Amino acid sequence: MKRSLALLVVAAVAIGGCGGKKSTGGNGPPPEITGIAAVPANAEVVIAVDVPRVIDSPLVQRAVERLLLGSPDLAARWQQLHDSCKLDFPKQVKRMVVAIGPHTGPKPGTGPVLIVATGQFVEGTFVACVRAMLGKGDSSVAAKPVGAGTLYHATDGNRSMWFGFGRSDTVVLGSDEQYTTDALLPGKKLLDNPEMKTWMGFADQNAPAWAVGRADERVRAGLVKATAGELSAGPAGLVLTADATSGLKVELQAIMATDPDAKTLESFAKSQLGLMGAAAQVKSLGKIVDKVAISSDHNRVHLKVELDLDDINQLISVLDGGASSAQDSPPAASGSGSAQ
After folding, report:
1. Each residue of 227-264: pLDDT tens digit?
2. Is the domain of 229 the same as that of 273?
3. DSSP string covering 196-239, please?
4. Nearest alpha carbon to residue 303 among 264, 340, 250, 263
5. Domain span at residue 179?
6. Could you please report the per-residue DSSP string of 108-129?
7. Residues 259, 135 within the same domain
8. Continuous segment of H or E residues that includes residue 259
9. What is the pTM of this model?
């Protein structure tokens, strides 16, 4: 059961917690879309996951378990989906892409959410699964034509989700009717956005998981303030690559406006890392912090960390409130986090 948690939670969240608005539909031939090719061009964030390579990660499993412990309703929906649909997500789902569209209100990060799952799906079986999960009462699943395909609207009380099939092996689920429709129909897609396409080129798309997104305005302004105005502007975009199949390898790239800004952020990040290393001694995590490397390359700042299984077990122990081992020795005099 634990192996299916990371995928089931995404489906449970999508079905149980989404809201949306009306759409105008669309015309045209059925698009053969899958993964990134489904994401509309105005997406602010895109996350791609190679499911078979991440599903057994101890960190992923632990994170999902902690999420369920804090949300009994989500846990119940999770179990209901598993029992009602008899789905084997680790075997059926091969890749997932999560996209967040532009926010329509005052708060960044509140745009429509889109999930594109590619794997072994049968449209009729999937729809029946959703109907079985929702049950009776004020729940329903309605359908209407969109282009040459079908857009389904699942409601459960005041919560809604829209979904459809881009092709036989790809289901698109969304929190907003129009955004889901845009994904299912031909039109401008993410690779038609020059800026996002460039940033995606900086990601290792063969990694088990990677993400690209525009930096939140609050983060950009906060960094300028934190550096006392030494930065002319905060990062325009962020690129993340992660591999948790054995231990954890992570690289975060900040795309800056200029090369001097990249150098400034590199120096600032290294100074903050030194402070973090000192504070981490209290939890015996100093050696882990010392594995973080920071460097810059033209207008990009790189933050890299590679942890082995012993490091991961130590992190999980601390997260679980386990006793700390003897305090680590202080970092080397040369300083933590310097790139080699």
Report:
1. 999 999 999 999 999 998 878 899 999 999 999 999 99
2. yes
3. HHHHHTTS-TTSSEEEEEEPPHHHHHHHHHHTTT-SSS--SEEE
4. 250
5. 2-190
6. TT-S-EEEEEEES--HHHHHHH
7. no
8. helix 259-280
9. 0.78
